[in-house]
Write a structure and sequence with these properties.
heterodimer, A: alpha+beta, Aldehyde Oxidoreductase, domain 4, four-stranded mixed β-sheet, 28% helix, 27% strand, B: alpha+beta, Ubiquitin-like (UB roll), DNA polymerase, domain 1, 2 domains, five-stranded mixed β-sheet, 5 strands, 17% strand, binds FE2/S2 (inorganic) cluster, Ald_Oxase/xanthine_DH-like (chain A), xanthine dehydrogenase activity (chain A), EC 1.17.1.4 (chain A), Xanthine dehydrogenase, molybdenum binding subunit (chain A), AldOxase/xan_DH_MoCoBD2 (chain A)
Amino acid sequence: MKKRGKGIACIFYGTGYGNGFPDVSRAYARLLEDGRVEISVGATEVGQGAKTVMVQIAAETLGLLDKDIVLINEDTSKTPDAGTAAASRQTYNTGNAVKIACENLKEKILEDAAKLLGVNTKVGLCMKDGLIYVKSYPSKKVSLKEIAELNKDLQAEGVFTAHTTQMDENGQGAPYWPYTFASCAVEVEVDTETGEVSILRAKHVLDVGRAVNPSLVEGQIDGGFAMGVGYALMEDIGLKDGKMTNGSFEKYIIPTALDIPEIEKVLIEYPEDTAPYGAKGIGEPVMIPVAPAILNAIYDAIGVRFYEIPVTPERVLLALQSKG
Amino acid sequence: MILKKIEVNINGRDYCLDVEENLRLIDLLRDKLKLTGTKEGCGEGECGACTVIMGGKIVNSCLVLAFQADKSRIITIEGIEEDDVIKNSFIEEGAVQCGFCTPGMVLAAKSLLDKNLNPTEEEIREAISGNLCRCTGYNKIVSAVKKAAKLKRGGDGE
Ligand code: FES
Ligand code: FES
């Protein structure tokens, strides 16, 4: 018999290293001779989109287009330390460092521009599309290229230190900032004859603060969801006497395209004050509610609570037998 | 070491090669011919990262011996044109994250669309089910294949 059930789970997750572990990201910004801006940052791209996001944040801050940003990353001889691409921390932590570096560079550029334009302060100046102009008198302008020709040494650093405080001996305190919230709902079908669980539908709601790049966020939700499905239903390294018994894809089963449904995605944009343009880290939070939502749905379908994962067909059948 | 002489056409180019009897096709491609777009994930036929098209069918090049490719036509990811519809649909739909599975996925998709320009969602998922992806959760890959199918049929892909 095939039985259906629905489940939901909600989570919050502190991004960054947290709990007192130092968490600092650095970035450099430099005006190039042709008027483009070079950003040097150690944020590692592993497919999550760090390169894209850093370029977008820099372009936004400097009023430039993405193509006017030259990104140097993952080169330890040139780039300052941005910490690891882990703890869902690059967009928030290193994004902040990039934004600060660009703001610092912009201040320096505006100071030079004020002198060149013969105005007494940089207050009334605007910087957009590679030009600096007087807001109330836009024809009075100078280009980034002209500024770069006169001052070959326009560069700035951005440093961002995240909140991370060690908890007290009772495990109380404020270990992280900020927190990302997510919830996931699934409908499953349990085959009581084979013990197989399939996911029919899914919805994922994620509080992203601000989606710097919505398509990348969706990609992270899809990927995290699939990992959650594997975690809940399939993946088991089979640790025995300190050794993995399932050390190959023949035994360590991960989801294929056939195991994943389309996912309805909802992005909640409630900007985080301390974040670059409000954007929070989302890499890990997308995965966390998936397994509990699936286990809740299984309970709804067959009335069995599982306290051990993965919920493999064998475990489902055993549980159904002992339930009688 | 016993050498075997093979003739093989790879990405439209004819090769006449002496290969060791136990050389795998993936090693011929990657190590001897420097066609490193084909990736080795598991080396045991489970992940599909090493997928190439041989004689019109997708094969795991880690499970094929080079001499078995004698007299066949092979397409690797390097044989996919710059302006290829499938490749560009992958880019436009955001179907690439780390990219390790991508060469195999693109070829699995090509092999499907070469035979069926109107696949259902289920057929697309089935066609790429031999290719594991740890990053994308597959959905954007499925959308990319749908889009490519539509473009190839003459639609606008939307
Ligand atoms: S490397 Fe050939 S299937 Fe994994
Ligand atoms: S994009 Fe990373 S494995 Fe598919």
